């Protein structure tokens, strides 16, 4: 089961509002329920990331949604130590990582609830959910 992050543990890391599109609406709605959804192509069985209306492998528009287990490994990462982006300048240092999900795709996310210098390639992580001020939810990952 995925964890739900406590906002106070997120420090000053901003939680920007998503802008759902018709093909991503179901994904964002599921995050609000603390569920990380992925798509799978019904034709070639490719697991699809990021949410879209077609399979990038075979072009089929026959896709289905399924609940991801919410765990993965850090494939690569960087520690951001300086930022001029509004809201992020006061959040440094923070981690941006490519997380390889157990289901296969790699997704970008922040790694939270740990010291940035403790993050390692190959480290196991689990999804956590962070509410936004506008009522949406973002996904992030924390070490297991």
Provide the succession of SSEs. Answer: EHEEEEEEEE
Question: Any idea of the CATH class of the largest domain?
Answer: Mainly Beta
Q: Do you know the CATH architecture of the largest domain?
A: Beta Barrel
> Percentage of helical residues?
under 10%
Separation of the first and last Cα atoms = 12 Å
Q: CATH topology of the largest domain, anyone?
A: OB fold (Dihydrolipoamide Acetyltransferase, E2P)
Q: Describe the sheet with the most strands.
A: 6 strands, mixed
Strand content: 35-45%
Number of strands: 9
Computed over alpha carbons, the radius of gyration is 15 Å
Instruction: State the domain count.
Output: 2
- Principal-axis shape: globular
Low-confidence stretches: 5-10
Q: Provide the structure class.
A: mainly beta
Oligomer: single chain
Average pLDDT figure:
93
How many DSSP H or I helices? 1
Could you give a short description of this structure?
By secondary structure, the chain is mostly beta strands. The protein is built from one helix and nine strands, in the order βαββββββββ.
Can you walk through the features of this model?
It is a single chain. The chain is mainly beta and 144 residues long. It has two domains: 19-67, no CATH class; 70-144, OB fold (Dihydrolipoamide Acetyltransferase, E2P), CATH 2.40.50. Helices cover 6% and strands 37% of the residues. The protein contains one helix and nine strands; from the N terminus they run E-H-E-E-E-E-E-E-E-E. The strands form two sheets. Strands 1, 5, 6, 7, 8 and 9 form a six-stranded mixed beta sheet that branches. It has a three-stranded antiparallel beta sheet with strand order 3-2-4. Strand 8 (124-131) and strand 9 (137-143) form a beta hairpin. The longest helix is centred in the first third of the chain and has 8 residues, at 25-32. The protein is globular, with a radius of gyration of 15 Å. Mean pLDDT is 93; it is low at 5-10.
